[in-house]
Amino acid sequence: MSEAEAAEAEQCASESDKNTNVFVPKRGAYSEVWAYFGFKPDDETQQTIYCKQCLAIVCAPKGNTTNLSNHLKRNHIQQYETLQKNKTAQSQSTCNQTKQTSIEVTLFNATLYPTTSLRHKEITEAITFHLAKDMAPVTTVEKEGFKKLIQTLDKRYQVPSRNYFSHVAIPALYVKCRETVETELRDVLNFAATSDLWSSRAMKPYMSLMIHFINDDFQMNSRCLQTVFFPEDHTGEALAQGLKDALINWKLEEKNLVCITTDNGSNIVKAISINHWTRLQCFGHRLHPAIENAMKDQRIERAMGLCKKLVGCFSYSWRRKRELSEAQKQLCLPDHKLKTECPTRWGSRQAMVRRILEQQAAITHVLSSDCKARHLFPTWQDREVLEAVDKTLTPLADFTDALSGEQYVSVSSVKPALHLFQSSVLAVKEEDSDLFCTIKSKIMGYLEEKYQDQKTQDLLDIATTLDPRFKMTYLNEDNKTVVQNRLKNEMSKLTTVKKSPPTITSSSSGPAKKTGKTLGSFFKAAQSEGAPDPASDSQQQQSESLSLELHSYLFLGNTDSEDDPLGWWKAHKEQYLRLSALAKKYLCIPATSSPSERVFSRGGNIVTCRRSALKPQNVDRLVFLAKNL
């Protein structure tokens, strides 16, 4: 392009810009072609259309844009090409954004699953499992957020009503789960149990019963059988009958109950005595009164009272909470809140004391600037008391937590734990203070007194001996022979090898063919006349076999204390047939009644403030599903 042509084009462009400013755009126009056309300002009706490029009048009846596009195409080719490019880009963008779905897809999404379809059943069962296992209320299915979630996951599924889940789905799941548990219990030869009483938020009393057993694969199992409404007086006779009815309801024989672990309530102790069952006292409930008895000291009571006031001072003041958090950051202390004590849980006292000792620098920093609460900080005498209490209770809390599990063997560790208390944890040392020695002596003395019961000692001796980690290490020398004889006696009662019945061969309908005696039969008869009694030989051989099996097990070295005893018995069950059966019988006993306590924790999460009107049968059903699914 020459300089003259470029100047002319620039002049035309400048004139076009001037002309553009003269005209006004069409009102309500959507087409891009109107960017090149306009109207004079005094043309209020916008009848005469002017081209902004050449100022020519273009006829476009009723706003028809075809003539406008043709005008650009004939006279202003550059503007026309720009217009076409913009239209092409806009149509492609619109096509990508609003892609029309096919008729098949639209009809498929609009058709709901039939209630009898496999997909509908799968989703409904999954929702039912969620409601039961996660202890969610059935009103969840009616909430907008839950419906939105289901619609996002699958548009063809329609959530059933809450009445369907409460009256059909959950009862059906309960029946199915109960049948599974019943089938599992048919193969159980021996089992242990735990039981406890509980009151819901609506102050309705319930009694729980859990059983514990070891299956053929040497795995520990726990099943919640019931959380039954118990409106009768909690007398020993009523509890005894209630426990018996629970076993009958599940077709469990009392003779197969090895032991039941309970707390120290006089009514439950009497109930177990009435039923003539073997009872093991809960280690945690036995340790609680021992610690409470040791804490009866004026120095300890003053320090505990001061700790409670100190925790309350920070619990009910948001300002002190904020200052405590800031002090923790400045002193590089953990961002922990203070804990308070629960009267029925001695472990909460230990947690409260430990937290105050941990945060004493931050507490001092906050209270030093508050003259009204400065007197709450413990003195050095109080700190000595708190340190003594913490040193005593911390190892006991660790032992209790370890013995409270239900997925591993715990009963065989009670006797070693008591021995460790006496020899190490609660042993009085020269460097201990007078208060420290007094606390240790009181706790150990109380435990020794309560565990002197002969039946309890016999049960713990057998369980400890059957644990390959301990065997007879923690048994008294006088009791070792008694325990061995008792094990032999129980091993002799077990039938480990099932004898197959004699087979009866069918004979032909004709008379039996007479056969003559062989030469060997005469020698056999002669030998049998002078042979000893086979029954006495069998008994002697069995006694020797039992002794050999028991002594072979006892002479074998103990396994590591961290090993799993059930895993050891699984690997050696073929070598020790009778002893492995006894191990399954006794090692399933829980050392504490914590499993029943956990059942009531589930019950508390189900019977909430908004669900306090649940019927007892529904509570039993929901707790059963939450625990056993």
Explain what you see.
This protein is α/β, with parallel strands linked by helices and 629 residues long. Helices cover 57% and strands 7% of the residues. Mean pLDDT is 82; it is low at 496-514.
CATH class of the domain at 187-282 and 593-628: Alpha Beta
Total helical elements: 25
CATH topology of the domain at 187-282 and 593-628: Nucleotidyltransferase, domain 5
If you compute it from the alpha carbons, what radius of gyration comes out, rounded to the nearest whole angstrom? 43 Å
Poorly predicted runs:
496-514
Distance between the termini: 86 Å
Instruction: Assess the beta-strand content as a share of residues.
Output: 5-15%
Strand order of the largest sheet: 6-5-4-7-8
User: Assembly type of the shown chains?
Assistant: single chain
Backbone structural class: alpha/beta
By DSSP, the count of extended strands is 8
- Quote the average pLDDT: 82
CATH architecture designation of the domain at 187-282 and 593-628: 2-Layer Sandwich
Q: Could you describe the largest sheet, including whether it forms a barrel?
A: 5 strands, mixed
> Helical amount among residues, as a percent range?
55-70%
Shape: elongated
